[in-house]
Backbone:
């Protein structure tokens, strides 16, 4: 009888240990799978982060290049407006210099409106206004320089400024 008791007790312990062993084995497998999934997820996240870094880095380079080009265009416009002022002064030597400065400042304000407008549609409208204004200035100065007329002031240009204000 004592022998049977120990035998059954031993069977129970083995059974319990056996189940524990199987449960541990299953738990270890599940832990290994979870670690593998976590490692793969971390690798995927690292890959996606690296792609985003590259994408943002390249986007930053494009934005810098675009802004540099835009700034260069802006400077060229200002230089051309300065040339326009010199042509107006040459075409109208009797005109008070302050009028040439008013025309110059008006053109500069139109250019600033283009560059400072928040959206493309407003910028487009400002470009049209600038183009119209430059055409009027060109027509006034060309008529004086080509025909060697001796007008005192660029009347159409000044009228155009008054009309826009």
Residues:
């Amino acid at each position: 009888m004592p022998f049977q008791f120990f035998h059954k007790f031993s069977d129970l312990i083995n059974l319990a240990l056996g189940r524990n062993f199987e449960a541990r084995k299953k738990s270890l497998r599940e832990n290994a799978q979870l670690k593998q999934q976590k490692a793969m997820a971390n690798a995927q996240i690292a890959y996606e982060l690296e792609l985003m870094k590259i994408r943002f880095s390249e986007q930053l380079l494009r934005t810098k290049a675009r802004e540099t080009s835009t700034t260069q265009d802006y400077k060229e416009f200002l230089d051309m407006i300065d040339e326009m002022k010199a042509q107006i002064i040459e075409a109208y030597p009797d005109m008070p210099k302050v009028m040439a400065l008013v025309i110059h400042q008006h053109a500069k304000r139109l250019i600033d409106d283009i560059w400072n407008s928040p959206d493309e549609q407003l910028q487009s409208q400002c470009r049209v206004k600038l183009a119209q204004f430059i055409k009027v200035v060109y027509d006034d100065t060309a008529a004086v320089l080509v025909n060697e007329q001796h007008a005192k002031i660029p009347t159409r240009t000044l009228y155009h400024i008054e009309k826009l204000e």
Q: What stands out?
A: The two ends are 117 Å apart (CA to CA).
